[in-house]
Amino acid sequence: LPFDATQSPGYELVYTVQTLCFLMASLYYTSINTLFITFIIHVAAQFQILVQSLKCLDDHPHDEYFINCIKHHQTIIKFSKELDLVLSPLLFFFFCCS
Fold first, then answer.
1. Is the pLDDT of residue 20 over 90?
2. Which of 30, 36, 60, 75 is a Cys-bridge partner for 65, taking CB atoms 3.0 to 4.6 Å apart?
3. CA pair distance 53, 46, nearest whole angstrom
4. Is the dihedral of CA 9, 15, 19, 25 positive or negative?
C-alpha cells in the first residue's frame, strides 16, 4: 500500500472501505438469492393455480377449458425450463464461491 494501513488515519480508511464493500456484497448476494426464491415460489404458485383449474374441470364441460389448462401447463413447463437454464450456472457459481 502507498501508506501505512496500521496507523491512523490509514487504518480507519481501510476499515471503512472494507466494511462498505462487505455490506454491498452482502446486499447483492441477499438480493440475488431473494430473486431466485421469488421465481421458484412463482412457479409453485402457477402449479397450484393449475391444480385448482383442473379441479374445476367438471364444472366446465367444454373442451376449450381443458385446452386452456393444457396451454397453461405447457407455459409453466417452458418457464421452468428457461428458469433452470438461467439459474443453474448462477447457483453453481454461488455454491462454488461460498
1. yes
2. 60
3. 10
4. positive
